[in-house]
Amino acid sequence: MELILIYSFLIIGLAISIYKDRDKTKKAFFIGGKILVKMLPSLLIIVGLVGLLLGFVPPDTIGFYLGKDAGFIGTILAATVGAITFIPSIVSIPLAGSLLRSGAAVMTIATFITTLTMVGTVTAPLEIRELGVKFTLLRNLLSFTFALLIGLVMGVILI
Amino acid sequence: MKKDAKVSPKELVILGIMAAVFIFINFWFPSQANNVYSVSLDYLQEMALIIPPVFILMGLFDVWVPKSFIQKYMGKEAGFKGILLAFVFGTIPTGPVYIAFPIAAAMLKKGARLMNITIFLGTWAAAKLPQLMIELKFLGASFTTLRFVLTVLSVIIIGFLVELIMLKKQEQATTSNISEINK
């Protein structure tokens, strides 16, 4: 179902692009391929990591640390890990998906994805250089707080 | 901005270690090894399904909405249109968020509102379209939709708060800077 949606989106985009400019569309394939080649190692690494994680760590253990019973501490932990690491979302979201299916709480996973993308500790020096200390600090602190709120609301709505 | 498409050697080394681990677990942990293999294989299949649309769309966006285009149009519009534009330009791009910082800085110099810049950065980081597609595949429609809606709301509130607090600080410091930012 999700795949049908994703592929119809692709077909529409592709049709418009081909209709408007064939050469540009060719270039788009080339650029997409280049990004893929660049990301392929990290994609394969995450495939391996997920296999090892789910193969060795029983769902009970994942549930214990990241599940509902771990409560807010699990969520805070996931939020902090998300805030201080810098993993491309194409790699981290599949990982988050398998954690969710193995018993992690919605609240924790939603918070993790949101801090991972919105809060950037690793990229903070770059942000400070371009936009200043105050702005960077303010944006990241607010993003962290709101990530927890997003997780909380999602945990309540989606069970 | 460096723009090389080279694979990083560090990642290749990690990948090599991963491959070695996959071979060794067959001997060291034979009971778990099969489980690991089948999970990884399932995963690889799921990945393979999502990779073509995501990367072709990344290429399409890169070709049709280049960074220079975003820089040209962002910052010009104010009010609701400005917010909308910040939002649209935030969801379309494909690169990591640090690519957006210089664009945001350039927009600020051109007189864009702080609120719009924060919205632009927030959506770029957390609500990019290719990312949403992956999320749709691996976390499902209700999860993705809900997180998207909540993220959009949060990003707008964060933008509002950042502007409010930053301008207040500027006011305390000097009055000349306000006109600089409000321009």
What's the topology here?
The complex is a heterodimer of chains A (159) and B (183).
Chain A: H1 2-20, H2 22-56, H3 59-66, H4 71-84, H5 89-101, H6 106-118, H7 124-131, H8 133-157
Helix pairs in contact in A: 1-2, 2-5, 4-6, 4-8, 5-6, 6-8, 7-8
Chain B: H1 9-28, H2 30-64, H3 67-73, H4 79-91, H5 100-109, H6 114-126, H7 129-139, H8 141-173, H9 176-182
Helix pairs in contact in B: 1-2, 2-7, 4-6, 5-6, 6-8, 7-8
Over all CA atoms, what is the radius of gyration of chain B? 22 Å
The total domain count of chain A is: 2
Structural class of chain B: mainly alpha
User: In angstroms, what separates the terminal alpha carbons of chain A?
Assistant: 21 Å
Structure description:
With 159 residues, chain A is mostly helical. Chain A has 2 domains: 1-56; 58-159, no CATH class. Helices cover 85% and strands 0% of the residues of chain A. Chain A contains 8 helices and no strands. Chain A is globular, with a radius of gyration of 19 Å. In chain A, 42% of the residues are buried. The model of chain A has no long low-confidence stretch (mean pLDDT 88). Chain B contains 9 helices and no strands. With 183 residues, chain B is mainly α. The mean pLDDT of chain B is 82. In chain B, 40% of the residues are buried. In chain B, helix 4 (79-91) packs parallel to helix 6 (114-126), helix 5 runs antiparallel to helix 6 (114-126) and helix 6 runs antiparallel to helix 8. Chain B folds into 2 domains: 1-49, no CATH class; 65-182, no CATH class. Chains A and B meet through helix 1, helix 2, helix 5, helix 6 and helix 7 of A and helix 1, helix 2, helix 5, helix 6 and helix 7 of B.
